[in-house]
Write a structure and sequence with these properties.
Blueprint: H1 2-13, H2 17-29, H3 36-49, H4 52-64, H5 71-83, H6 87-99, H7 106-119, H8 122-134, H9 141-153, H10 157-169, H11 176-182, H12 188-205, H13 211-223, H14 227-239
This protein binds one RNA strand through residues 1-9, 12, 35-44, 47, 71-79, 82, 106-114, 117, 141-146, 148-149, 176-184, 210-219, 245.
Length: 245
RNA sequence: CUAUUAACUAAG
């Protein structure tokens, strides 16, 4: 059984959705009973595909066959809703967890924040952060980074930038993902200054740049028609030994 | 043995 679990999860990482489902079916045909881990592995496959309906069906199947979904099952399913752009369903799953007397952990909440973030429903994302705190969870980098994305997609760049201070106040240091996210909101001439300011902040904080950040910054320059600065950044990137992709 | 985050690229 453990072999099957591993294979299914690995096929998921390789994005071999159909193969993974096939292996799962074959397992049943050979009379091997799937465990929670088996189901969770398959759920993680659906998650990567954003196959929301299949994930929901599998959850039902778990209950039907007497295998109780756990936090990981729900975490994967919620993340599946994010990838499938179904933020309302991700919230519905949190409600369902509550009904099943399961306490959502940070994975679940963060995935839901991500789902809301992609959809730009930033007030829901804020509400989720509150839920986390109220239930005794400590929001982490994922929580705040996803929250910043929610504000960006929600059309509120100012609030996105405020997330920087809010996380520091709570003892979470922004990382390369945080800045990578924020660099995306730098459109127009004033946005360019913000982008360069963020780059300085990163330097001061000793956060190493990567390709994503450079690409985001360069994109910001291009949107502001400042190809001269794009070029400077490009040279700097090469000087730091970061390979373009 | 299983789960959560950023850029560019395609479509529009």
């Amino acid at each position: 059984e453990t072999s099957y679990n591993t294979v299914i999860a690995d096929l998921g990482h390789a994005m071999e959705i159909d193969l993974a489902s096939e292996v799962f079916r074959e397992m049943g045909e050979r009379g091997i009973a799937p465990s929670v881990v088996t189901y969770n592995s398959l759920l993680s496959v659906y998650e990567k595909a954003g196959a929301v309906d299949m994930a929901f069906n599998l959850l039902d199947e778990m209950y039907a066959s007497g295998v109780k979904p756990d936090e990981i099952s729900y975490g994967s399913s919620i993340s599946c809703c994010a990838k499938g752009k179904e933020w309302e369903k991700s919230l519905a799953l949190l409600v369902r967890m509550h009904q099943e007397h399961l306490q959502p952990n940070l994975y679940c909440i963060n995935a839901a924040i991500h789902a809301c973030g992609l959809a730009g429903v930033n007030q829901k994302a804020e509400a989720l952060l509150e839920v986390a705190v109220k239930t005794g969870l400590e929001p982490d980098l994922y929580s705040y980074n996803n929250l910043a994305m929610a504000h960006i997609n929600g059309g509120d760049p100012e609030q996105a930038l405020e997330v920087l201070d809010r996380m520091r106040e709570n003892g979470i240091d922004p990382d390369v993902f945080t800045y990578g996210t924020l660099l995306c909101i730098c459109e127009g001439p004033e946005g360019l200054d913000r982008a360069l300011g963020l780059l300085d902040e990163m330097r001061e904080a000793g956060i190493p740049m990567n390709v994503v950040c450079y690409t985001a910054a360069i994109t910001a320059c291009n949107k502001s028609q400042r190809t001269d600065i794009s070029w400077q950044l490009w040279k700097q990137m090469n000087k730091e030994g970061i390979k373009p992709n």
